[in-house]
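Quarterly update from the structural biology core.
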Amino acid sequence: MWGLGAFAALVAISISAAHAEVLLNGRVTDENNAAVSGAKVTVMARGASEAAAQEATSDGTGAFRLRLPSPGDYRLNAQREGFFQVKDRPVTVAGAEQDVTIVLQPANEVHDSTDVVASPPGIDSSTTNSEHTITGNQIIEVPYPSNHNLTSALRILPNAIQDRSGAIHIDGGGQDQVMYTLNGFNISDPLTGQLTSRLSLDSIRTVDVTSGRLAPEFGKDSAGTMALRTTTGDDKLRYSATNFIPGISEQKGLVLKDWSPRFNVSGPISKSRAWYSDSLQVEYIKNIVPDLPKGQDRANSWRFANLLSSQVSLTPSNVLSMGFLMNYWYAPKTGLGALTPPSTTLDQRQRQWFYYLRDQIYFHNGALIEFGYAGNETFARQIPQGGGLLLITPDGQQGNAYVDGVRKGGRQQAIGNTFLPAFHWLGRHQIKTGVDFDRVTYSQNISRTGYENFRIDNTVYSQVLFAGSGVLGKSTYEASSYIQDSWNIPHHVLLEFGLRQDWNQLLGNSNVAPRAGIAWSPRGSSSFRVSGGYGIIYEMPSLRLFTRPADQYALTTIYDPAGNVASPPLPTFTVIGPWHLSTPRYRNFSAAVEKELPARILARVGYLNKRGSNGLTYGTPDITVSGSFYALTNSRRDSYESVEFTIRQSLRDRFEWLASYVRSRALSNSVIDLTSDYPVLITNNSGRMPWDSPNRFMSWAYLPLPRKNWAVAYLFEYHDGFPFTIQNDEGRQVGALDARRLPSFLELDLHIERRLQFRGYNWALRAGVNNITGHGNPNEVNSNVASPHFLAYYGGQGRTVNFRIRWLGKVESH
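Predicted structure, tokenized:
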């Protein structure tokens, strides 16, 4: 009897405790009522320590749920990188279930209050994805050369590297192997798949780079997704200006060097209902080549970029967003360098129009639906300095560039995404599904003359002329869909699995790819996480690969040393055979261990392994008596492997530092994109990718100085030199592909900043030195083994003094 009585008492206590528990249902939004995912929310009883806090993370709809022990008074904290923290907000839970909305304000440079603190970086427990995030403030505060260029700013990502042409590569992938999005829409160049758009750095809120174990919603590109999210206005009028005073540089005399003024204004159209933001950037770039004679050593270019965006809260649960981006670039003598004098350069003009419209509807049951449309129109014009041939000699180029043309591209995109209401079965499930439809177009009108390869004795070895029409047009359709379940299993396990379907008209294939990821944290702790995942990615083919057969073809003539024709003109054709082509397929595996240490230090160790097969490539040409044939096949194989160590600390206010080391290897059997335009005859196309750098150490910081309102910022980077290929004076590959390397790269940029108030306005004054060690860092090399200047290095950035003035708007009164 005593045992039965004790059991009954225990059941009664359990039932009473269950009835005492209450649910706190919440949603995290930004200042314009748009959902904020990945926000960490902690709730604790008033007077209790943070060690006793209950924790949750907002999902893709911004929703979260916490089970509290009893009704009463609580304190609530919320944080998400890129936003100010919500600290010690009082919450009273009176009934069995309570609803709460948390509004996170973007971490602007100019604060409306002196007691707000930016959220530190943390572990995002809402997803198993491998993601790196940089905020707009970090982009502005960390020093680097070309501080007007987002591409240069991406160097501060641990998994990104900038090659010797200035292009950025994510996790060993090519520029065209990353899907670039702006506020949720594909902004990649319709033809090349690269990020050629420019926008003011002041307009960027965050850059989120997702790679490795991609969720099913991401696809089309094997190296991952780079999501650019821009600022929107709020109920306060804000304005700023940067670099509006041009600078002077000492480089072969006093010159007006790079000047990149930026102007930003944002505010309400209708308070608490509609807002706008406009960001204008103007770039004047003077390229000075020290190795060229005066009068032939410089080229100027102009670029304009303007992003106008707005957001309207039609109802508290319906948000409409729209935007328009304009780009224009005028660049005479593009390509000027030590081995490419002015006559060999191109005058270029480019423009872009990108626009989008998106509607998000949130339902009280936790569901969210969004749909939108975007258009991207591009135009490019290339004009050579003359109508002659390009002359390729062992000591560089002469003559004229041989391409004269117009290119036009376009993409129309429609998307739809749905978060279904969460449900519980052995844990909490959040289902997300969506579709994406694209139409991509391209047309050109191009005329090519040709080029000649010269031996060391100035005799012509080969002449390549072009024939046929360079006028063509082509279009294609793409369709994708996906479904994913995010399953929060008890005991702090998150399992994400799903399927993605991709179809493209060019290949006529429809592929289904599985994705899976898992993350685990010890019970009761969100400061440690082990995660991993595996996924198959089918890469969408590039439209430009399928336009080559309709383009011009080359006629190659070979001469002996006496100047006699050794081989009559033979054509080189590009063909797509009758055989069926498969969709390029990548298998990605990644794993990571993350730990939040004391003093707001976050440490991460990550591993990534990518294997690509069935890649589309035009391989080494088949040579017959009637000519050469480049055939499109599935023979490309890629391989990338990396281990990353990163440690990062967030200090008070906006100050922080980061250090990372990455050991990696990027290989392929199709390193060079072989076309009749490529002047070097490649006999073995297997080797390291041109951006392969096995060892890279990078660190940056923005730190306070002892004196109030003074700060110091630095960027340090070291990596192995990039590989290059040796050739002879007949334009043939010598030895293995990319067997040599440039000297190691070393750069230290150090700046000091002073913030002050003057005549009722906030100002930030900065001075510093880029490449303070004066390390050469050459980006060009004479790789012709027959040249007397073989292995002579050129280019590099040199040591430069940098000044910056930022006008940050009117001082807020309190």
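The two ends are 70 Å apart (CA to CA).
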